[in-house]
Amino acid sequence: MSFKRPTSDVDSGSPSPGEPEYLVVGVLRRPHGLKGELVMEVITDFPERLKTDVKVYVGAGHRAMIIAKAKPHPEGLLITFVGVDGSDAAGELRRQAVYVKAADRPPLPSGTYYHHELIGFKVVNEKDELIGTLSEILQTGANDVYVVSGARGDEVLIPAIASVVVSIERDNRQIRIREMPGLLSGSHDRPNAY
């Protein structure tokens, strides 16, 4: 089971809860040179899709822009947009998120999910006892960690590994986990209970 990260600490651009309309693919950091190029931090697992003639949406207002050129850079991508000529024009885009429409995202292989698809799923154990609701997914490098918010405001951290995550039931909006010794201890008032 693997998961893809569509966003960072930047707003997803979603007009309402649920499926977002836009997904963050990068953040424009600073102008580079005098010809309108910008250094973009890449926040997508599909950077190869950010290429010449691709339409993206920049900033909180989701201004439609066309990529004129994109090439690898040690800090992400060096990107140029059609109509952005010179460092002053590029500087106006500094610190703005770059989005793509969620409807245009590439399909994932079976058994993999975008993070935003799982947020809000109920988390239950193998006995169908409710643990809480998935509120956040942390990326630790070795594996993702699910942050599950309980009914009493407590949080439980659950490693997203095959020995713990039994199933992800998209139709039921539910994640079923296998309890392991110590996994949930200290997170509830009653020992070994929810």
Structure description:
The protein is mainly beta and 194 residues long. It folds into 2 domains: 102 residues, Elongation Factor Tu (Ef-tu), domain 3 (Beta Barrel), CATH 2.40.30.60; 59 residues, Roll (SH3 type barrels), CATH 2.30.30.240. Helix content is 5%, strand content 43%. It is elongated, with a radius of gyration of 20 Å. The two termini are 26 Å apart. The N terminus and C terminus are likely disordered.
What is the tally of helical segments? 2
- Amount of helix: under 10%
Proper CATH architecture of the largest domain = Beta Barrel
- Please tell me the total number of domains: 2
Terminal CA distance: 26 Å
SSE succession: EEEEEEHEEHEEEEEE
Superfamily at the CATH H level of the largest domain? RimM
* Class by alpha and beta content: mainly beta
Number of strands: 14
As residue ranges, the low-confidence spans are 1-17, 187-194
For the largest sheet, list the strands in their spatial order.
2-3-6-5-4-7
**So what's the CATH class of the largest domain?**
Mainly Beta
Beta content: 35-45%
In the CATH hierarchy, the third-tier topology of the largest domain is known as: Elongation Factor Tu (Ef-tu), domain 3
Mean pLDDT rating: 83
Query: Over the alpha carbons, how many angstroms does the gyration radius reach?
Result: 20 Å
Biggest beta-sheet profile: 6 strands, antiparallel, barrel
